[in-house]
């Protein structure tokens, strides 16, 4: 009522104007607080639904699943005339469990959300845009270097999986020590560009000399 009275006043006093603004701020803060907690409750509900559908163990016991599926079919056959749809729903859930497995033959892992493949086989999905293969060279062959190929995020730089990133870091530290830089980690010291170039040239020359000796 005071706010309505002050709003109709042509020349409100300073105290009335301040009180009106404080009242509006309190109203907005209450609205925002209620809206925030409503969003939090909705987030909890969405998270619960997501975890219920995708957050279970990626490995499923095949024998147990087949047993549950067989029991569901038997129960559905026994209750087909009584209008009981609980068993039929169990069979549908069993079919859904089968469909959430990885589409790669022989893989028992659970498929990732919104795709038909697990994390190890996600690169088999031609439509995915989030992952790329690890480009670390495991060994060389006559046809060329054999790469790791494990899926990693496309934003990963360099394009190595965690295991091979540690190996590459150790190789870099070893190469820097040979070049005269005694460092324990590549995070603590960024080598000068000419030092890195000199080390690359030295390694190339060593490979050429080894190839000449072999010939």
TrEMBL record:
Keyword terms of this UniProt record: Chromatin regulator, Isopeptide bond, Mitochondrion, Nucleus, Phosphoprotein, Ubl conjugation
Q: Name one GO cellular component term.
A: NSL complex
Per UniProt, residues of the KANL2-like probable zinc-finger domain are: 102-165
Q: What does this protein do?
A: Non-catalytic component of the NSL histone acetyltransferase complex, a multiprotein complex that mediates histone H4 acetylation at 'Lys-5'- and 'Lys-8' (H4K5ac and H4K8ac) at transcription start sites and promotes transcription initiation. Required for NSL complex stability and for transcription of intraciliary transport genes in both ciliated and non-ciliated cells by regulating histone H4 acetylation at 'Lys-5'- and 'Lys-12' (H4K5ac and H4K12ac). This is necessary for cilium assembly in ciliated cells and for organization of the microtubule cytoskeleton in non-ciliated cells.
Quaternary structure?
Answer: Component of the NSL complex at least composed of KAT8/MOF, KANSL1, KANSL2, KANSL3, MCRS1, PHF20, OGT1/OGT, WDR5 and HCFC1.
| Name assigned to this protein | KAT8 regulatory NSL complex subunit 2
Task: Give the species.
Answer: Genlisea aurea
Q: Which PANTHER family match?
A: KAT8 REGULATORY NSL COMPLEX SUBUNIT 2 (PTHR13453:SF1)
One Pfam family of this protein, by short name?
zf-C3HC3H_KANSL2
Q: Where in the cell is it found?
A: Mitochondrion; Nucleus
Q: Per the UniProt entry, what is one GO biological process? A: chromatin organization
Highest rank taxon of the organism: Eukaryota
Q: Does the keyword Nucleus apply?
A: yes
């Amino acid at each position: 009522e005071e706010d309505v009275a002050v709003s109709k006043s042509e020349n409100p006093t300073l105290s009335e104007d301040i009180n009106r603004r404080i009242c509006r701020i309190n109203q907005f803060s209450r609205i925002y607080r209620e809206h925030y907690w409503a969003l939090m409750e909705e987030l909890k509900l969405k998270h619960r639904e997501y975890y219920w559908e995708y957050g279970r163990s990626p490995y499923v016991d095949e024998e147990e699943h087949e047993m549950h599926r067989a029991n569901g079919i038997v129960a559905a056959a026994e209750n087909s005339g009584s209008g009981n749809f609980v068993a039929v729903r169990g069979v549908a859930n069993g079919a859904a469990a089968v469909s959430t497995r990885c589409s790669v033959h022989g893989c028992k892992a659970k498929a990732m959300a919104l795709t038909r493949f697990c994390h190890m086989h996600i690169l088999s999905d031609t439509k995915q845009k989030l992952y790329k293969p690890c480009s670390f060279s495991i060994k060389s062959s006559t046809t060329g270097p054999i790469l790791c190929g494990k899926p990693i995020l496309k934003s990963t730089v360099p394009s190595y999986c965690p295991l091979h990133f540690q190996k590459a870091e150790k190789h870099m530290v070893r190469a820097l020590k040979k070049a005269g830089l005694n460092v324990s980690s590549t995070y603590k010291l960024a080598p000068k560009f000419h030092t890195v170039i000199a080390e690359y040239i030295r390694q190339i020359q060593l490979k050429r000399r080894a190839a000449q000796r072999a010939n």
